[in-house]
Amino acid sequence: MAVIVLSPSLQSFPPAAAIRSSHLDSYLRPTPPDRSLLSSFRKSPVFRNADECLSSGADSGVCNPSLVHVAITLDVEYLRGSIAAVNSILQHSMCPESVFFHFIVSETNLESLVRSTFPELKFNVYYFAPETVRGLISSSVRQALEQPLNYARNYLADLLEPCVNRVIYLDSDLVVVDDIAKLWKTGLGSRIIGAPEYCHANFTKYFTGGFWSDERFSDTFRGRSPCYFNTGVMVIDLKKWRRAGYTKRIEKWMEIQRTERIYELGSLPPFLLVFAGHVAPIPHRWNQHGLGGDNVRGSCRDLHPGPVSLLHWSGSGKPWLRLDSKRPCPLDALWTPYDLYRHSH
């Protein structure tokens, strides 16, 4: 695959800030990847399509219309979670060879690790320059929420190939325990995004008192019935997103936040401002979130009532850290079967 460089300077990229490549390591890195990192993960078993799966024919590229597209960020801190998420998707998919992964990175030494762990995986790697959003990020209740890569989901329509018209975006701290194709087939109707909504949650708490008292801001929800949704699991219509320029709408609210301080929680509130009340509802089984506890203590949580297709350790407590510290929560045992980290178990 040819490398597409969108700008000669990483610090002056347009909003996409992307290098699309399945050979990003060799192009951007003058030194070989860290061998200790490469050996940190066991090789995944090979997963094959069932007989019922549609044949992709001779077209194995990213534009094949039969593919399911999944976007996940990769960074060293959350790498163990991302690898487990991919492993879980492959294990539970009837057609694992028909899933195409889009890995968003801000470090360029991770492609070789993915390829050594999943030798037959269909994937591309996209570079997201931190400078794209660094000037738009304001302080949050938890430092991890301020990392530029958290905001890469805002730019998927620019980062991914134009032929990719729909994508499932997933956080790195989750595992899928059902066939991802079921989520892929979610009907969005006229909506841009689909996600599980939680209308019982206190929506007002996601914004400051100053936001609600200023009609310039609070009027954005006039005529809408906004509900909280978690941006760690979304089905996105990229074609409609591109056409209507939703990245710019999100950036506008981030710019306002820099001067007006209208929210406290990282990358979530801009999505709520743009989309809440206009979300295609997805069954709650596809985001059993909050298993990482709150944003400060990371306390243990129980599952929400009902069936489960996806377990999500949103919050400050991550299962791999709690397991390594010998202080796991009971539900962390549900993450363990997908962990490919070589020094675990």
UniProtKB/TrEMBL annotation:
A biological-process GO annotation: cell wall organization
Keyword Cytoplasm included in the entry's annotation: no
Matching Pfam families: Glyco_transf_8 (PF01501)
GO MF term set: glycosyltransferase activity
Localization annotation: Endomembrane system
Source domain of life: Eukaryota
Principal location: membrane
Membrane topology: Single-pass type II membrane protein
Pathway given in the UniProt record: Glycan metabolism; pectin biosynthesis
Assigned GO CC terms: Golgi apparatus
Keywords: Cell wall biogenesis/degradation, Glycoprotein, Glycosyltransferase, Membrane, Signal-anchor, Transferase, Transmembrane, Transmembrane helix
InterPro entries associated with the record: Glyco_trans_8, Glycosyltrans_8_dom-fam, Nucleotide-diphossugar_trans
Top enzyme class: transferase
Entry's EC annotation: 2.4.1.-
Family: Belongs to the glycosyltransferase 8 family.
Descriptive protein name: Hexosyltransferase
UniProt lineage: Eukaryota, Viridiplantae, Streptophyta, Embryophyta, Tracheophyta
